[in-house]
Write a structure and sequence with these properties.
The chain is α/β, with parallel strands linked by helices. The protein has helices spanning 42-49, 74-80, 97-112, 121-134, 152-166, 182-195, 234-243, 246-256; strands at residues 3-13, 16-27, 31-35, 56-64, 67-68, 82-85, 92-96, 145-146, 170-174, 201-206, 219-224, 227-232.
Length: 257
């Protein structure tokens, strides 16, 4: 089973340290939730893991499938089996969802084997149809330009469809619940649950308990001031919903004083 292993990760943006020694392990087949208030470094962790150039790693390592992925470009990390579902997916006018996904599949296949001729159109259409049926998506969705004119829920469903087609081993979902109403949240969560299984590890980054009512985590981690300060099971998220973050802030300040 593949494992994403983060060790003492420290990251700065514009000279300011945001992540201050993050340690975390995510295995295939597990669902982890990373929670914390705004500005604690959750999205910084997501973008750093996928190689965003604005985030400068000052120390630490991130191991996946025998490689320190900090030495790889973003596409290399993707080809290795990592995936990031964005909080704010970008619209790409003129590029249909289907064409985007077929190009992504072919890029991944050719990274593994430069002689690969790419997926045939009939094979791709069958694959895409099967995944859209699994996610209960209208087939017309594939012909629309990627994220152009999409609602918040449609953008997030397009991200889940990418997960389904690209079959990553570890998926990072950066505040997937952001901007979604209850119905859209339920639909997106049902899509994630349909993909859940022994071949997929998921790190769900969120502020709130509500998405965890639909996507049940195996483990919950709390981040404050650039560090993971508490880890536990699903009950930790419920306690956080009732008690807020103050009890953790007080305890953390006592320990660091």
């Amino acid at each position: 089973m593949s494992e994403l292993s983060i060790r003492d990760l420290r990251v700065s943006i514009d000279g300011k340290e945001i992540l201050k020694g993050v340690n975390l392990d995510v295995h295939q087949g597990e669902v982890h939730a990373l929670m914390g208030p705004n500005g604690t470094g959750k999205s910084t962790l997501a973008y750093t893991l996928m190689g965003h150039p604005n985030y400068v790693v000052t120390s630490g390592e991130v191991w996946f499938k025998g490689q320190n992925i900090l030495e790889l470009e973003a596409d290399g990390r993707s080809h290795l089996g990592l995936f990031l579902a964005f909080q704010y997916p970008t619209a790409i006018p003129g590029v249909s969802v289907a064409n985007f996904l077929r190009s992504a599949i072919n890029a991944k296949r050719r990274a593994a084997n430069p002689e690969d001729k790419g997926i045939s159109i009939p094979e791709f259409r069958k694959q895409l149809k099967d995944k859209m049926d699994l996610l209960q998506m209208d087939h017309d969705f594939a012909g629309r330009y990627l994220n152009e004119g999409f609602s918040g829920g449609e953008k997030k469903r397009a991200e889940v469809l990418q997960m389904a087609v690209l079959k990553p081993e570890i998926a990072i979902m950066d505040e997937t619940d952001s901007g979604l109403d209850i119905d859209a949240l339920r639909i997106v969560s049902e899509g994630v649950n349909a993909l859940r299984g022994p071949d997929l590890g998921v790190l769900v980054i969120t502020h709130y308990q509500r998405i965890l009512n639909y996507i049940k985590p195996d483990f919950v981690h709390i981040m404050l001031d650039g560090r993971i300060v508490e880890s536990g099971g699903p009950e930790l998220a419920l306690h956080l919903e009732e008690a807020g973050y103050d009890w953790l802030r007080d305890r953390t300040e006592t320990i660091t004083a």
